[in-house]
Amino acid sequence: MAVLELTNISKHFGAIQAVNDVSLSIEAGQVVGLMGDNGAGKSTLVKMIAGNFRPSHGTMHLDGLELILHRPVEARQHGIEIVHQDLALCNNLTSAANVFLGRELRHGFGPFRVLDYRRMYRRAGEIFRELKSETRPRDLVKQMSGGQRQAVAIARTMLSEAKIVLMDEPTASISVRQVTEVLHLIRQLRDRGIAVVLISHRMPDVFAVADRVIVMRRGRKVADKQIAASSPEEVTGLITGAIERV
């Protein structure tokens, strides 16, 4: 059974139809590449899944139950996590502090509860090891590479046993070596049974790691294919409109 299912989802902002009648399903442990030109509706679609926007029409189901979200915190409570393109990290804090930002562990009683740094460092270290990342809990984010920063952002999604991780352009503006690290992290999520939605303009990355590719153009879904049954040339044609629909 699909972990997430969207049925005839639409979103308009006044007269602007950002997403128009999109249906799709995603299974656990599946990586789905979401591609399209600027303004195709990718980010709006993902923001509806993440609880930033309410759909104008259509329904969403998570594990077979209808999902109605009013705020991003509700999506997180249901196991839907998002890694934004800017990562939303605090450069002056350690990687462990960033992983637990807003979800800090404390110990003590009543008004005397204080931050439990030891447990946070230990748990962050465990997650980095599970991800097979070289990131260390006490490292400052401002001293990290792009790949290590992605590891911190992804580690944050694993605190709450995520079912779905939405990733917005995770390999933009980083080196080739760091891209390899990030794709490895995505495979680690997949191998843990977590569904991943990967928004990307980088065709090689999508074809390297995704099981399926969904292409959007002008707010509509124009393709939903297994990666093995498609090609970069076909996806490019769908994005540009040279190929109408498959």
Features:
6-stranded mixed sheet, 4-stranded antiparallel sheet, alpha/beta
Can you describe what's shown?
The chain is α/β, with parallel strands linked by helices. It has a domain of 167 residues: P-loop containing nucleotide triphosphate hydrolases (Rossmann fold, 3-Layer(aba) Sandwich). The chain contains 8 helices and 12 strands. The strands form 3 sheets. The chain has a 6-stranded mixed β-sheet, with helices on both faces. A 4-stranded antiparallel β-sheet has the order 2-1-4-5, with helices on one face. The radius of gyration is 19 Å and the shape is globular. Belongs to the ABC transporter superfamily.
Looking at the structure, the CATH topology of the domain at 4-90 and 161-240 is: Rossmann fold
Helical content class: 25-40%
Which structural class do the helices and strands define?
alpha/beta
Reported for the largest beta sheet, the result is: 6 strands, mixed
Shape label: globular
Give start-end ranges of low-pLDDT stretches.
Answer: none
What is the tally of beta strands?
12
Q: What CATH architecture of the domain at 4-90 and 161-240 would you give?
A: 3-Layer(aba) Sandwich
Helical run tally: 8
Strand content: 25-35%
CATH superfamily annotation of the domain at 4-90 and 161-240: P-loop containing nucleotide triphosphate hydrolases
State the end-to-end CA separation: 24 Å
Provide the residue-averaged pLDDT: 93
What is the CATH class designation of the domain at 4-90 and 161-240? Answer: Alpha Beta
Radius of gyration: 19 Å
In order across it, which strands form the biggest sheet?
6-9-10-3-11-12
**Element pattern in H and E:** EEEHEEHEHEEHHEHEHEEH
